[in-house]
Amino acid sequence: MAETIAVKDAWAAGASLSDADYRAWYEESVTDPEGFWGRHAGRLDWVTPFTKVKNTSFAPGNVSIKWFEDGVLNASANCLDRHAAKDGGRTAIIFEGDDPGESRRISYAEVLEEVCRMANVLKAEGVRKGDRVTIYLPMIPEAAYAMLACARIGAVHSVVFGGFSPDSLAGRLVDATSGFVITADEGVRGGRKVPLKANVDKAIAIAEKGGQKVGKVLMVRRTGGDVAVEPGRDLWWHERREAVAPTCAPEPMGAEDPLFILYTSGSTGKPKGVLHTTGGYLLYAAMTHAHVFDYRPGEVYWCTADVGWVTGHSYIVYGPLANGATTLMFEGVPTYPDAGRLWQVVDKHQVNIFYTAPTAIRALMGAGDEPVTRASRRSLRVLGTVGEPINPEAWLWYYRVVGEERCPIVDTWWQTETGGILITPLPGATALKPGSATRPFFGVRPELVDGEGKPLDGAAEGNLCIADSWPGQMRTVYGDHERFEQTYFSTYKGKYFTGDGARRDGDGYWWITGRVDDVLNVSGHRMGTAEIESALVSHPKVSEAAVVGYPHDVKGQGIYCYVTLMKGEEGTEELRRELVLHVRGEIGPFAAPDKIQFAPGLPKTRSGKIMRRILRKIAEDEPGALGDTSTLAEPAVVEDLVANRQNKR
Ligand code: 6R9
Q1: What is the CA(386)–ligand 1 centre distance, in A?
Q2: What is the pLDDT, as a whole number, of residue 1?
Q3: CB within 8 A of 83, min separation 6: which ones?
Q4: Across the chain, which distance is largest between two alpha carbons, in Å?
Q5: pTM of the prediction?
Q6: In terms of CB atoms within 10 Å, which of 49, 57, 354, 647 comes out highest?
Q7: Cβ–Cβ contacts within 10 Å for residue 442, how many?
Q8: What value of ipTM does the predicted structure carry?
């Protein structure tokens, strides 16, 4: 049994909720969701109040999710105008550049003006309510301005992480039928430049072949590097912003009008456009941000994610700004110029709440304690993690060395699809167990089911489902509602299936064990094995590929590829390097394979299905645990794979 760390008096002092509050609120939230969420929706400003709170169904063939459906509001007005009106000089965004010498504080009044100007530029260039605008920017304040400018005029943003390749960007432009891109000349990370505009140019050419024309590109000047400018199509933000008015009335939006699309990987096919709407999403992001981090007015909050992922959407931009918080945006990486950077930034900006990924913690743990202890870190009060399971060893290092046992750790489990945090401790209210995401947030009803869908009670391990809707839930897969139902509601009828496995212990605490489908989580980046496989087979020398994950000390999971070559091709070291580069080019650098094993054949059943279970065991260096191989079409294939495995200890 893992040790339990009781709530300390110092954590409970001043915390917004106690353990008894948590229990009472949770009880109300699941017995009377209408009353609970109807009341808490008062934390947002509504143009027209809603009369209906919840109208949701997980019924097979009829999945429909609506919250506050007749309410009217605007997300950017909730994030900016109301705070600017009360206290316009308060810092909304602290920008910390890649270069440690560069930082800037931007007030609520200033952010509001920039957002209004960008909204006016979008309008002047023909963007209308409902249009999809693709954002491909580095971690600079303009990324937040762009998202909020879209929200202001009712355009739907689709942020694409700056690490994605032109091909991946093109696929997202086509799927979202998006004809407007906001980008930068170049990004800078860890001292290295990223050619964003050049990638956009390539992506536009590819998208055009796919039938999607991009009419306008708004470019932010970040580095001043040389870029090709196509007259009539490409516009500079710094020029256009001068030519428009500094105010822009927020568009009244229905609570169920789309706010954004964010692409995420599943176990099959191309990435799905996860669609979030306005009212429920914003309320859920704000409410979780306030309670999970116990945010107190005046505090500095820092989430190290990139706005290209959902964590950046909900916990750098929408949640913190809806709460009037000061949110730090960091352009760089944890190890540049050295492994002490994060803690140096904590001291520099007196950060109170810090939220990062287990992979960063493990990487920094490897660099030793000195880069941490060299900084004071006295300002820190709450520490959080997200993105993948955290091993107890990394949890304890974070707790003891970074937080000096002064700061509770909130291990927050959630997904792009869930919009906000679903399972998490609350600081000052929840006793902690290293490695456990602990208890459900308000309104969240997790359930465990076995392979047949039978509910499991008490202490048990199984597949993690959610029994009823919560306001932050995705509403559909953009343009494909059937895929939405099929992916999330057909495996276990009447329940939302997360794709994760989990264990519930005797205290009712939840332990997420990782994906149970063919989705990898590499350094917190989520990707489907199918995407990497199709990138590999698009190489002319590859005839077939199968990709599995294996445990990796820093990345959580590593990418292990089995590759069968075309007849006559030879599996050389050079080809290995070429294939790694090829996958980086097709998807993005974060998808680079860690291991490539050339395989004369793949283990298949007689019906031709690849037996991934076997491939996983070989990649994990457990050839003795292959299990039942009697259904293999050609047993000899496995002997070769075992003999040539790349992870032999
Ligand atoms: C927010 C985010 C979602 C997947 C999810 C799960 C894994 C996220 C976790 C965690 C264990 C945690 N995951 N948080 N696993 N403990 N605290 O990461 O969204 O990129 O969609 O990934 O990440 O496997 O299903 P997304």
Answers
A1: 7
A2: 47
A3: 90, 92, 108, 321, 324
A4: 73
A5: 0.96
A6: 354
A7: 22
A8: 1.00
